[in-house]
């Protein structure tokens, strides 16, 4: 069990990582801020991130003890009353559980090639998010990806940060367990994944083939574009595209919802012969 | 083209319906508040609701004129500058377009029986939302339902209000075009829909049959439960249940996302022989 340290003074320098953790205040700071007990579990089992410290509301402590035992002795657990807690965080934190997290280690290109090759051999899936700008959508994309066994997420240089506090929350912690990395340029990402043997697919209202008619099961990379504009039309025309059958004349679906529908199709047919 | 009336004084009694329209302030008031130009279009084509009045930011007026022409001369269009507009609404309305809407007419049981019988004959779908409590989810459910041709939504007595401002916005106005009604009791709703010839199905992680194996196309009613608990287990055990194939050990999907996956399956197979 990690050490428990009582905090009575909101200006105590030891709780510096927890000071003013509204999303807008976290920009540019090292590490990330995870909230809530379910996300705490995801952080405990993450191989890519580790907790640096926890801040727990005093009246939540007893109920959380079994969970807290999964953190090592090098993770201080700060405990505070509601008033001190909210004064530290800069807003009322209803869940009463905050974890300051950091990356566990730097990953190399070789690590990523090995990871993706393993996913490919296993006929698994990866998602490529290009220019996704909404943190809710990013979180929902990871949550949906987790439900359908997505092995990794690749982000282009324009996509927003999955470690934004709100994305972590909406993902129910899945951003801490699905490996992700950032790479520059959709064409470079495509060349890399295609070279590793992934079938690269994207979603488009004018797609070549209806999703539900996509039969043969293969290792797949699903490319998603920005919320408004979608993927670059020049890139779209060079990649096999799927359309989701939809009633005529309507606004398209939310990007994370579209991804869920496509990933469900891939996942539910994963045991069919290729 | 409806009349355009300039408002210079935020206390002007004519703009009463637009005063203090944050969701919490709208509770218990007649009518509803729709925002944004896309939702305005949905209101214009709605058969079940009509605009009572519009409030438009002056610098949006010219761009909106083609849209505004679709409202009748009995719909006053109030125009105000940003400062006056925000003082009326009680918060900064970035979209600069508000519509005060009301129900066009009361619908009878006979109207609803006729509507549902038509949907059933057409082998269409309805959604039944029991206890859904989150307004984002309610809005997303209508948006997703619209994409997949849902003909009507039935709400039980516990489900939240689709006409809540945030639900309307998240639905991209679909709550104004998909007919919905409230009824008491999931069993009464089930008896009614089954009696009209709908195949009643629900979603459950322990469902009898995997969604993607559901073949034969029929008129269907999809029952959805609350975000946390789902449907009443006693009811669940009496209805045919579908499970969405999912990676093991995970939190279930968001209810509106689950619905989208199921409805996509129904919709994409609607032309298969029954």
Q: How does this structure look, described?
A:
The structure is a homodimer of 274-residue chains. Chain A has 274 residues and is α/β, with parallel strands linked by helices. Chain A folds into 2 domains: 4-103, 2-Layer Sandwich (60s Ribosomal Protein L30, Chain: A), CATH 3.30.1330.30; 109-268, SPOUT methyltransferase, trefoil knot domain (Alpha/beta knot, 3-Layer(aba) Sandwich), CATH 3.40.1280.10. Chain A contains 10 helices and 12 strands. Chain A has a 7-stranded parallel β-sheet, sandwiched between helices. A 5-stranded mixed β-sheet of chain A has the order 1-4-3-5-2. In chain A, helix 6 links the parallel strand 6 (125-129) and strand 7 (150-155). The longest helix of chain A has 14 residues, at 255-268. The first copy, chain A, is elongated, with a radius of gyration of 21 Å. The model of chain A has no long low-confidence stretch (mean pLDDT 91). Chains A, B: GO terms for molecular function: RNA binding; RNA methyltransferase activity. Chains A, B: Keywords: Methyltransferase, Transferase. Chains A, B: Residues 125-264 form the tRNA/rRNA methyltransferase SpoU type domain.
């Amino acid at each position: 069990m990690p050490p428990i340290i009582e905090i009575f003074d909101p200006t105590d320098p030891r709780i510096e990582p927890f000071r003013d953790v509204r999303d807008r205040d976290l920009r540019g700071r090292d590490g990330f801020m995870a909230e809530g007990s379910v996300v705490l579990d995801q952080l405990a089992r993450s191989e890519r991130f580790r907790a640096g410290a926890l801040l727990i509301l005093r009246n939540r402590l007893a109920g959380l003890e079994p969970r807290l035992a999964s953190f090592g002795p090098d993770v201080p657990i700060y405990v505070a009353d509601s008033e001190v807690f909210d004064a530290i965080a800069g807003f009322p934190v209803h869940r009463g559980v905050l974890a300051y997290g950091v990356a566990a280690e730097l990953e190399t290109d070789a690590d990523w090639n090995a990871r993706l090759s393993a996913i490919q051999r296993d006929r698994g899936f990866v998602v490529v998010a290009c220019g996704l700008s909404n943190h809710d959508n990013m979180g929902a994309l990871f949550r949906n990806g987790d439900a359908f066994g997505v092995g990794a997420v690749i982000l282009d240089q324009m996509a927003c940060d999955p470690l934004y506090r709100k994305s972590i929350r909406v993902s129910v912690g899945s951003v801490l367990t699905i490996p992700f990395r950032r790479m520059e340029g959709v064409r470079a990402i495509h060349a890399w994944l295609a070279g590793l043997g992934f079938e690269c697919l994207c979603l488009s209202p004018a797609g070549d083939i209806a999703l539900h008619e996509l039969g043969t099961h293969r290792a797949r990379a699903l490319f998603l574009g920005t919320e408004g504009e979608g993927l670059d039309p020049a890139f779209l025309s060079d990649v096999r595209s799927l359309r989701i059958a939809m009633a005529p004349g309507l606004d398209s679906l939310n990007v994370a919802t579209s991804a869920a529908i496509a990933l469900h199709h891939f996942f539910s047919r994963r045991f069919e012969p290729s």
